[in-house]
Design a protein that fits this description.
Elements: H1 9-19, H2 28-49, H3 51-56, H4 79-84, H5 86-89, E1 97-103, E2 113-118, H6 119-133, E3 142-146, H7 155-166, E4 169-172, H8 179-189, E5 193-196, H9 198-211, E6 221-224, H10 231-241, E7 244-250, E8 258-261, E9 268-270, E10 275-280, E11 294-300, E12 311-317, E13 332-333, E14 338-339, E15 344-347, E16 350-352, H11 354-361, E17 367-375, E18 382-389, H12 396-403, H13 407-414, E19 419-426, E20 441-443
Helix pairs in contact: 6-7, 8-9, 9-10
């Protein structure tokens, strides 16, 4: 079953219904007026009900904001606040909390981040998923869910509920633990849509091409989320399977809302009825205009349990100028370029990100994943990369040459200021595929 050509006008209509406008088409100005009203309500709500925000926003009230740009006057909320003040950020009784999510931050010492959601907050997540999946799924289509599904209220469970409401046929599987088993499931169910973790879906595609291409598949479209989605991943999946790949932007702090690409694949259309997004200078905190890269900041407008005001995500992106060819009035966020904490220093004047390594290494035939470690121990800095391979046919010197085409690596390596070590590990069914956000590990002592 093929879906008809769909643009995210349905997202515009969803937001129009949320706002309560009766006009045929909603405008960006209509949305901004609604957002200003909801921000005022949110500020008053958190100041009345959260001990944390009562102190953090002392001297402010909803009436302090005369226009949407006045949001920039308010102080930020930081990831550290979720580690040290999570309970104080609550706006409801703990007995009203339906789900608590604990996030361990890679490379961060101390307490993990904790997020609290009421049943209504989780209902919003189901709504987010419904609207996103409606752009690429039709009633009756089978959707294989390769995300964690075992916990009630978890991401896979909420996606399952959203797909049922859409009239699709969701199939819970969970993250990929064995490539052969997951491919068999994809084939047996005749699923035409897949939702999964980028690096795992790439591994599935390459494994199918190299070892099990006789297995018939019915795959047409997929959504990749939970981690950075490189262009190399998209191109390889499209080359192997011919599937259309959609990227979804969301994080636990957002309640898994955020935005999704339309079929023009020119940025994420943002869920403006539930969030206000800003792009700020990572150093000064100043709000940046469309087109300039900076840190993504969001404020929730409809959450009740643990609203967040000007939360700094650490994601680096920009607002795309102009309108999408689909006709939506929603602002668009560019693909995430990097994480602020993910820019790893190689030498005094060069940095590298996991996104840059993805574009090089994941395009190499047979490579399904890798780990990277930068050692800044006394002596020459070293970048160690371990490739996870499906076969042994790899020219390591060719890979090193490709890495050196990346300006920060090549410049440091050719100057003799950086050592580059490469090794390969070969996939077996015992290999554990990564599920979380991948990072470059740094050794300093």
């Amino acid at each position: 079953m093929e879906i008809k050509e769909m643009a995210p006008i349905s997202l515009d209509n969803w937001i129009k219904e949320k706002i309560g406008f009766n006009t045929e088409r909603i405008s960006l100005q209509d949305i901004k007026e609604y957002q200003l009203k909801k921000i005022r309500q949110t500020i008053d709500y958190v100041c009345q009900n959260s001990t944390f925000y009562r102190k953090r926003l002392e001297g402010y009230s909803g009436q302090s904001l005369n226009r949407l740009d006045d949001l920039a006057k308010l102080p930020f909320t930081y990831p550290q606040d979720l580690r040290s003040n999570a309970l104080q950020m609550l706006c409801v009784s703990q007995s009203d909390i339906e789900r608590v999510v604990t996030l361990d931050s890679s490379g961060t010492t101390g307490e993990p981040k904790r997020l609290y959601f009421t049943a209504d907050d989780q209902g919003l997540t189901v709504d987010f998923f419904m609207q996103g999946m409606s752009l690429l799924t039709s009633p009756g289509e089978r959707v294989l869910i390769l995300l964690p599904c075992e916990r009630p209220g978890g991401i896979g469970d909420l996606l399952f509920k959203a797909l049922v409401r859409l009239g699709a046929e969701p199939i819970k599987h969970g993250p990929v633990t064995g490539l052969s088993d997951a491919l068999q499931k994809l084939s047996e169910t005749r699923a035409s849509v897949l939702v999964g973790i980028p690096i795992q879906v790439l591994a599935l595609a390459k494994y199918w091409q190299l070892k099990e291409s006789t297995i018939p598949l019915n795959l047409k479209r997929m959504v990749l989320s939970t981690d950075y989605v490189s262009q190399a991943v998209i191109q390889e999946i499209k080359r192997i399977w011919g599937s259309e790949v959609f990227r979804y932007y969301g994080m636990t702090e957002m309640g898994l809302g955020g935005g999704i690409e339309c079929r023009h694949h020119q940025g994420y259309h943002l869920y403006m009825g539930d969030f206000v997004f800003e792009i700020v200078d990572p150093l000064t905190g100043d709000v940046l205009p469309p087109g300039q890269y900076g840190e993504v900041v969001f404020t929730t407008l409809t959450r009740r349990g643990m609203p967040l005001v000007r939360y700094r995500t650490g994601d680096i992106s920009r607002f795309l100028p102009g309108n999408c060819p689909c006709g939506s009035v929603l602002p668009r966020l560019d693909n995430i370029k990097a994480r602020k904490t993910g820019m790893v220093k190689l030498t005094e004047d060069s940095f590298i990100t996991i996104a840059q390594l993805d574009e090089i290494l994941l395009a190499v035939p047979g490579v399904i994943d890798f780990t990277a470690v930068v050692s800044n121990l006394p002596g020459k800095p070293t970048l160690e990369i371990e490739l996870i391979m499906l076969d042994r046919n790899i020219d390591q010197w060719q890979v090193i040459n490709e890495l050196c085409q990346t300006e920060p690596i090549g410049r440091a390596y050719l100057k003799g200021a950086l050592k580059l070590n490469l090794k390969a590990t070969y996939y077996s069914e015992k290999t554990v595929l990564q599920t979380g956000k991948r990072t470059i590990k740094v050794l300093t002592s």
